[in-house]
Amino acid sequence: MPTQRETDEAEIRGRIDKIIEGLHAKDLEGLKQVYSTDIVSFDIESPLQDVGIEAKLKNWAKVFALFESVNYEIRDLTLTVGDEVAFGHAFGRLSGTLKGGPATSGMWVRVTYGLRKIDGIWWITHDQVSVPFDVRSGKGMTGLEPPSGAR
Question: Which end of the chain is more exposed for a tag (fewer CB within 10 A), N or C?
Fold first, then answer.
């Protein structure tokens, strides 16, 4: 019989899988089912902060407008789960075929998730996506790959 922590971790991993499924299907309604209504998102594009589910879905809608087909990959998701709060980190890569254009392999980014258990359901209440940058040039380092054996 799994422990409550194991059950919670499996549920959270399922929520992250729903993001992958929602992006692949270009399904904003499906994506809406994993984020809290008051999510605070620090995404890869400006502004520095988006607040609320509508702002988060607007960012995903921009992705859908750019891509004919969308793929999203999560690697090395690590979770820390408490009774009502959890956080996780992973590497993520958005790729696919651009509308009217070529396929793109995308770039690896760092992703952090903050979750809260509300009325028995785990909701993503915060996410942050980042790219390392070169201090001297001020430019993002978009050609990096996750390390082998990363955790």
Answer: N
Q: Is the pTM of this model over 0.85?
A: yes
pLDDT of residue 77: 97
Q: Which residues contact 65 (CB under 8 A, 6 or more apart)?
A: 99
Q: How confident is the model at residue 150 (pLDDT cuts 50, 70, 90)?
A: low
Token pair recorded at residue 28:
């904003």
Distance CA 8, CA 81 (A): 7
Q: Which fold has domain 4-130?
A: Nuclear Transport Factor 2; Chain: A, (3.10.450)
Please report the pLDDT score of residue 142 as a whole number.
85
CB neighbour class for 105 (10 Å; exposed up to 12, middle 13-18, buried from 19): exposed
